[in-house]
Amino acid sequence: MITPYEGYVAVAEELNRLTPGSGEKPVGPVQLRVGGGGDAIKIARTYTRKQAVVSFDHAYHGRTNLTMALTAKSMPYKHGFGPFAPEIFTGRRCRNPFRDAGSARNGH
Q1: What SS3 class is residue 55?
Q2: For residues 16 and 11, what is the distance between their CA atoms, to the nearest angstrom?
Q3: What pTM, to 2 d.p., does this model score?
């Protein structure tokens, strides 16, 4: 599943322009190492002997079954997939110091 984000579309169009051939050429972004998030959860579950995992809203975690279960946003990421791993609880948005760099200064 690929969602047509403007940046991805621009890169795909440029790749199609640069590659030889006149026919349609399917292009899409891929993640070369998609299992990292799932591996981290499996390690944490084994170490803590606890199955429940908390994830936060407004976050994208990956495309494996386990990491899609963590992703709170159904469209466009999870729609039509599943069933997902159990014991996943989604919390409200957590402050992200990298994304919300000015929020501490603005009193938010």
Answers
A1: strand
A2: 9
A3: 0.50
